[in-house]
Amino acid sequence: xxxxxxxxxxxxxxxxxxxxxxxxxxxxxxxxxxxxxxxxxxxxxxxxxxxxxxxxxxxxxxxxxxxxxxxxxxxxxxxxxxxxxxxxxxxxxxxxxxxxxxxxxxxxxxxxxxxxxxxxxxxxxxxxxxxxxxxxxxxxxxxxxxxxxxxxxxxxxxxxxxxxxxxxxxxxxxxxxxxxxxxxxxxxxxxxxxxxxxxxxxxxxxxxxxxxxxxxxxxxxxxxxxxxxxxxxxxxxxxxxxxxxxxxxxxxxxxxxxxxxxxxxxxxxxxxxxxxxxxxxxxxxxxxxxxxxxxxxxxxxxxxxxxxx
Length: 309
Hints:
Shape: globular
Helix content: over 70%
Number of strands: 0
Strand content: under 5%
């Protein structure tokens, strides 16, 4: 550890001459004491400050990643014009949970680094949910969905409409909503036997993000409601990630099989119709012969019999 500290001291001229805006941002993020310990003194032996620094770094990383975490899902929906494998109910529940969590964290005054991603993901979720409804032929319902969320968000941020006790109960319910939001998606994947248009990038980033959020919450937020929500979210994100691995090639295989199955049926039906017609043709050509022979025989025998008689 002493060797590491000696190596870090070489950076002291740089850390002591940071631009004022960077200094102010770092002090507000770490606090004066940990800023002095980690940035000015470059002391890696102060456990509490090191944990706080890691937590802040993870939090900022999660917020940065959350700005693009749903972008692959958006691009997938726009490129395929299909919402197959994507559950609207899952996005509705998840967006509602994020909206409540965002309002709760803001009104409680928790550090933005511990919840900032909820706002960015909620906005992306709204866009994805609208696309899912649109590609499902329910464009009118998309307008109702957006209007309902806007009204709920306005009420949640107004203490005169939703007081602190009501918001605490809502946050407890948001944990349940967060859990319930994953259930429709898990069921949809299981029912369809594939992940469809679900983005693997989003699923695995959610898993990593929820795990990191457990650490940052333990370090910076003393609120069991927030912690339990992240623990439950991580468990269900793990299930989704395992489904993604299990059904990795299933969608394409299922589609090919279904298409080939239909084609096989069509081909067999087409093949059956010529054989049936040929059988009918054969029977049609063969049936006059006996009748003609019979008529010819009867016609031949009858005149000769008459002559003989």
